[in-house]
Design brief:
- The chain contains 3 helices and 6 strands.
- By secondary structure, it is an alpha+beta fold.
- It has a domain of about 80 residues: CD59 (Ribbon), CATH 2.10.60.
- It has a 4-stranded antiparallel β-sheet, with no helix packed on it. The protein has a two-stranded antiparallel sheet with strand order 1-3.
- A hairpin with a 2-residue loop joins strand 4 and strand 5.
- Helix 1 packs antiparallel against helix 3.
- About 10% of the residues have low confidence.
- Pfam families: CD59.
- Keywords: Disulfide bond, Glycoprotein, GPI-anchor, Lipoprotein, Membrane, Secreted, Signal, Transmembrane, Transmembrane helix.
- Its main location: membrane.
Length: about 120
């Protein structure tokens, strides 16, 4: 396989891994969990982001609507005033930092492969 084909193949794999298909997003869903959530669902088409809310030592994971990813909307829905939250746009992105580390690892492997092929 020549260098150009290898590069195209690697780019194709990166696109498949990092791009969203347009289907409904999948999110973790747990209410006030003290541990990492492992339950996930396919969200409705109206719910287009994943949400994670942190209350001290508890976290709530849910499907959410991007237009409601503002502090006041989250506070009103969950009747809270002391929390942090995250809205994200990829499947199962509302888990925990270990998932983000896995995504960064996959990206790093792809980048190193491309660089290796370019400089060979």
């Amino acid at each position: 396989m020549d260098k150009a084909k290898c590069i195209l193949f690697t780019v194709f794999i990166a696109i498949v891994v990092f791009c969203h298909s347009g289907d409904a997003i999948r999110c973790y869903t747990c209410e006030q969990s003290p541990v990492v959530c492992r339950t996930n669902v396919t969200c409705t088409h109206e719910e287009d982001v994943c949400l994670q809310i942190r209350f001290l030592h508890l976290r709530t994971y849910s499907c959410w609507k991007s237009s409601r990813c503002i502090w006041k909307e989250v506070a009103d829905e969950f009747h809270a005033d002391s929390f942090r939250f995250l809205c994200c746009y990829k499947d199962l992105c509302n888990k925990s930092p270990s998932f983000l580390a896995a995504s960064a690892t996959a990206f790093s492997i792809t980048a190193v492969t491309v660089l290796w092929m370019v400089y060979q």
